[in-house]
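Hi Q.,

Before the meeting this afternoon, I wanted you to have the 1-O-phosphono-alpha-D-glucopyranose prediction in hand. No need to reply - just skim if you have a minute. The sequence and ligand are here:
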Amino acid sequence: MTPRKPLKKAVFPVAGLGTRFLPATKSIPKEMLPIVDKPLIQYAVEEALEAGIESLIFVTSRRKHAISDHFDSEPELENHLSKSGKHELLERISSVIPNHISRIYVPQLSPRGLGHAVACARSAVGNEPFAVLLADDLIKSPDQGCLKQMAEVYRKTGDSVLAVETVAADQTDRYGIVDARDTVVRSIVEKPAPSAAPSNTGVVGRYILDGKIFELLDQTGPGAGGEIQLTDAIAKLLFEKRVRVHHFEGTRYDCGSQSGYIKATMAYALEHPKLRDELLEFVREFLV
Ligand code: G1P
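Predicted structure with the ligand bound:
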């Protein structure tokens, strides 16, 4: 058996316009919106690090500075926290990304779709398997993070892996929808109408992809919504490589929608030891 190339790189497309959250996202990327006290992108980065990723590749727009600033050190703030004895906070802001992890910022000059965003990372990734994490899909797992679960499938099989969940049958037009047998993907289609959907198994924003996908993205023209779709390139990949689904353990919050974002905030806040009791009492006031 040829040894697998290790999974060390992750791509975070963060150049979307986030129009559903305007005006909040006029000057910051939607991935910087906080859930309790951490921005969405930090949850995704932590999930990637837990899965053994060592190189973080952010595909950004001209508003990228908020994200790079967030992960850079902030000497003035660190000094202040240190002098005022707030060591726990200091530790929380200075230890997000360990020093041996590389960070690369790649520009996506125009928003032409998820496939285009991933293609922008080609030279940073090279010809290796890599992960893609969409930070607005926040996945709260009871034990291992979603990407770590998928990395285990990759380690065992060497195949590309898509995280999936069952979606409402009338909402297939929001997702990449797969037809899979025994975890192997037979077909995939982007945002089909319910009447045309091959199943109601929807792809959520976590992928482990063979490096071959870049060549296929080059050959992919605009698809659903006039955008270059990652799903369309994955459909081509199926002819050359095996792609598997992974029904992850955990709950996914669609933080690209206002209701999903608020649900995620509630779920994380209600688990927070310092917030739980007060918030439960507050919520009960609305229920009577
Ligand atoms: C993207 C993908 C889609 C996937 C979804 C998961 O769509 O194109 O295949 O199911 O993410 O969140 P978007 O939500 O960016 O429209």
